[in-house]
Amino acid sequence: MSPGTSTRRARSASRASAKRSKARRKTASKRRRKNRGRRRFVWIGLAAVVGAALAYGFANRDELEDTLREVTLPLRHEDIIRQQAAEKGLPPDLIAAVIYAESRFRDQESHAGARGLMQITPQTAEIVEKDSGGSTFETDDLSNPDINIRYGSYYLRDLLDQYEGNEVAALAAYNAGPGRVDDWGGASLEQDDIEFDETRDYVDRVLEKREEYREHYGDELGLD
Fold first, then answer.
1. Residue 67 falls inside a structural domain
2. In this structure, is residue 30 part of a structural domain?
3. How many whole angstroms separate alpha carbon 178 and alpha carbon 220?
4. Which of 32, 46, 121, 180 could pair with 176 in a Cys bridge, judged by C-beta atoms 3.0 to 4.6 Å apart?
5. 139, 119, 143: which is closest to 129 by C-alpha?
6. Rounded mean pLDDT of 48-60?
7. Which distant-in-sequence residues (6+ apart) come within 8 Å of 91 by Cβ?
8. Can 102 be counted among the known catalytic residues?
9. Cα angle value 166/100/140 (rounded, 5°)
10. Do residues 92 and 157 lie in contact, with contact meaning Cβ atoms separated by under 8 Å?
11. Which one from 87, 102, 167, 211 is the annotated catalytic residue?
């Protein structure tokens, strides 16, 4: 092969390599522009979704607040609560707050056997049934909201009477039992006197939720 031929081939290979490199650069540039376009489209779409969500939120703020409250501060069976509050001389917001602290308005059974919305044990229910003159109680009745709230309200009223209207003592007894409350101070019990952290937290939670139920559900509970 002559030197001239070798030189021509080298030049031809160099030009071909340059063309391929230029083609690759063009392809890469097109790909970058395409990716930028896609990202821009995604951001525009995201902004539109966020804008629509914000617009919906502002337009339906009350509805969203109600939905959120339904999750964080539920209320069910307000007609039964009002009826039992009137019959037992209890604040309806207090009954609602006890139900929230006990079950969050869900029918359930504890590891200790307490059942229903107000977490009544069968033993307590039998005492209430006897004291109230009934004779037909069955344990499964505690899953009935009407019966459960009726028995729970009766028991709460009894505890308030026992502790001379002291709500802290009555609530502590509802959670830990009257025997322990008697040991802690009975009718003169204050929150700082409660020796069980769990019971102290329970009383705090009920009193806090009572304020929230009074504020947010005044109409439903017949307070307004």
1. no
2. yes
3. 32
4. 180
5. 139
6. 62
7. 85, 210
8. yes
9. 100
10. no
11. 102
